[in-house]
Amino acid sequence: MMTNLFSIFDPSTNLLNLPLNWISTFIGLMFIPYSFWLIPNRHLFFWNFILNTLHKEFKTLLGKNSNGSTFIFISMFTFVLFNNFLGLFPYIFTSTSHLTLSLSISLPLWLSFMFYGWINNTKHMFIHMIPQGTPGILMPFMVLIETISNIIRPGTLAVRLTANMIAGHLLMTLLSGTGPNMSSYFIILLVLVQILLLILESAVAIIQSYVIAILSTLYSSEVN
Q1: What is the rounded distance in angstroms from the CA atom of residue 108 to the CA atom of residue 90?
Q2: Is 0.70 topped by the overall pTM?
Q3: Distances 70 to 11, 62, 74, 107 between C-alpha atoms, Å
Q4: Which uninterrupted H or E stretch holds 18?
Q5: Lowest CB count within 10 Å: 42, 112, 125, 163, which one?
Q6: Percent of the chain scored above 70 by pLDDT?
Q7: Which is nearest to 204 in space by CA: 156, 158, 152, 162?
């Protein structure tokens, strides 16, 4: 049962032994009309409002001289949000429900932050490992705790995104599987519950995109 349940996340479409499901990660961007970015419309204004809001928030966290850095995290937000929403459509592969993708996003970012921080701000990185006011006897333990918490950051970023995307899809799959055994009255109730779950999953898709972007921004601000 569990094997069949989790098989909904398997990339099963192949052509010449190449998994085509992963192409959905990028191919959807090709269907956005070019005129969408050129002709002013309410959707473009709304999207620009979101991006400008994120830019201001990320700039506050990173500092005044970080205009270019904010676009990295805005692009991450856009990429994750696009794939989260794409997975809500029927028969479309949810790439963000796989650690392969989420780790590919979080691990290179974390490594780049660590290399930059330890090479350019070595003293600051050592200071950051011991919170201010820590008693001398606890300093070795605090260094160990801070080191472990720093090392597991890319894993927690990846698992948080993957687990949240899997949980909602599994719940919707479990509920939809009980439909054939229900009476017509319960099926109507089940449809209403599925609609509510879909709304909830849409909110989760937005929130998780924001969470991974804002946490990455915070990690970046710590090495500067």
Answers
A1: 31
A2: yes
A3: 33, 8, 6, 18
A4: strand 18-19
A5: 42
A6: 77
A7: 162
